[in-house]
């Protein structure tokens, strides 16, 4: 009885896919994320900015700077996709 060798699968020499930049993904209608598509991320940005800035604290020598309250935070933020690339835009006043 003759034993046959199983087909060998070539080992890939390409780097791991995780090292590649993450491409933007659009809606179902936007095949390949080619067309301009804009999504508002204003609510998330407002919440994140308030949480990040209000927890800021910096100490230098004997002085400590901390932000206790954000009185005014106006603006907008959006994430756009064009040709598979993410474009982040924002405009805020404090």
Description:
With 94 residues, the chain is α+β, with helices and mostly antiparallel strands. It has one domain. It contains one helix and five strands, in the order βαββββ. It has a three-stranded antiparallel sheet with strand order 1-4-5. It has a two-stranded antiparallel ribbon with strand order 2-3. It is elongated. The N and C termini lie far apart (82 Å). About 7% of the residues have low confidence.
- Which descriptor suits the 3D outline? elongated
For the largest beta-sheet, the strand count, sense and barrel status come to:
3 strands, antiparallel
Query: Which residues form runs of ≥5 with pLDDT under 50?
Result: 16-22
Distance between the termini: 82 Å
Q: How helical, in percent, are the residues?
A: 10-25%
Proportion of beta-strand residues: 25-35%
| Secondary structure tally: strands | 5
* Domain module count: 1
Helix count, per DSSP? Answer: 1
> Strand arrangement, largest sheet?
1-4-5
Compressed to H and E, one letter per element, the order equals: EHEEEE
Keywords for this structure?
three-stranded antiparallel beta sheet, elongated, alpha+beta
Task: Provide a short characterization of the protein structure.
This protein has 94 residues and is of the alpha+beta class.
List the helices and strands and how they pair.
Layout: E1 37-40, H1 42-54, E2 57-60, E3 63-66, E4 74-82, E5 85-93
Antiparallel strand pairs: 1-4, 2-3, 4-5
